[in-house]
Amino acid sequence: RAVSSDNQxxxxxxxxxxxxxxxxxxxxxxxxYPLSKTIEVEALRYLNIEVNEADKVxxxxxxxxxxxxxxxxxxxxxxxxxVVIAAECNEDIILSFKPHPGSSISALMINNPSxxxxxxxxxxxxxxxxxxxxxxxxxxxxxxxxxGTDMIVYLxxxxxxxxxxxxxEDVTFTRSVESLKMQLSDYEKNK
Length: 191
Known about the structure:
By secondary structure, this protein is of the alpha/beta class. 28% of the residues lie in helices and 18% in strands. The chain has six helices and eight strands, in the order E-H-E-E-H-E-H-E-H-E-H-E-E-H. Strand 6 (131-135), helix 5 and strand 7 form a beta-alpha-beta unit. The longest helix is centred in the middle third of the chain and has 15 residues, at 73-87. The radius of gyration is 20 Å and the shape is elongated.
């Protein structure tokens, strides 16, 4: 009952390995782990996320956008700046910002009265927003994806796409303010 039983330093081998998602399953299969020794499970962190279109009530006529902060302050400020520029002159957009829990970003650093700041838990915020705009390196992308909230992943021009959703065809990625502006305009037309 060890991974390599002929080795004196063999590690214990569990009866089953719990895998939560196709990426984990694919990894274990590719490394030769016996599929019969795995079981698929759902990550508990998503059990409380419910999609309810009726809850989207900040302003049902306008486009309610949640900017989800990155751990890195510089990346967060870059995203906020890009969204503010892309949304300027559009009175049908309401911007809110949720800082990363590990970030020390403050309202003074944002310095923009058009951006509301909230510290509510992400799972409570997502149902009331139309779109979430996030950085390419945050695991919050998975929370947004599973909530059913539309999402735009903002990558800077020189950023490597580290998004856990980078291979998902139904996720929108952007690298510039101009592209973001077009995506918001398209969203507005289809709302």
